[in-house]
Amino acid sequence: MREALQNNKTVARKRFEGLVGRFKCDHELFFKYKDVIDHYVREGIVERTSCDSLSESQGFYLPHHAVIRGDKTTSRIQIVFDGSAHEDGYSSLNQSLYTGPNLHPNILELLFCFQKNPVAFTADVKSDFLQIESDLRDRDFTCFFWTDNLNNEPYVPNFTEFFYSPTPYPPQQLKTSF
User: Fold this and answer.
1) pLDDT tens digit sequence for 44-83
2) What is the number of other CB atoms lying within 10 angstroms of the CB of residue 94?
3) Calpha distance 144→164 (Å, rounded)
4) How far apart are the C-alpha atoms of 92 and 103, rounded to whole Å?
5) How far is CA 32 from CA 28, 29, 35, 37, 79, in A?
6) Burial 47-86 (b: 16+ CB within 10 A, else e)
């Protein structure tokens, strides 16, 4: 991945500037968005990093935006990171990741096995992907622009955890969960 992926700092910075413009018109959105980022920092999901000093040929920046869910009471705002953003003529993060073999069980076989026993157990893993720490060498590819104050220059945090599924459910997540 490291060799094939071209830095997309310009695209991500331009998208972030558009987001800041939206925040300047909607301060309430900014403070809710900031609360989510602050939560990521407190939980150790995100860290301030030295990505600020990445050369133009290293790393990858994730543009992001808000999805507002009026039907939710606890997490009305979700931040979506765009792994498909890229410079013209270059690959995106999503295109560069190895998806691995299909480890999903056959759903029909799973349903038949589920009915065999009188009692069934199910579980939901909280923050599924956030349970997997990302390799230090890969963190330069999970940078994004952020600011705690709309009047300040942005800084560049990155993810310390495997933060989302940019490709169809990756093998490391399936192996960890099951």
Assistant:
1) 889 987 655 555 556 788 999 999 887 877 668 889 898 8
2) 15
3) 14
4) 24
5) 6, 5, 5, 9, 10
6) eebebeebeeeebbbbbbebeeeeeeeeeeeebebbbebb
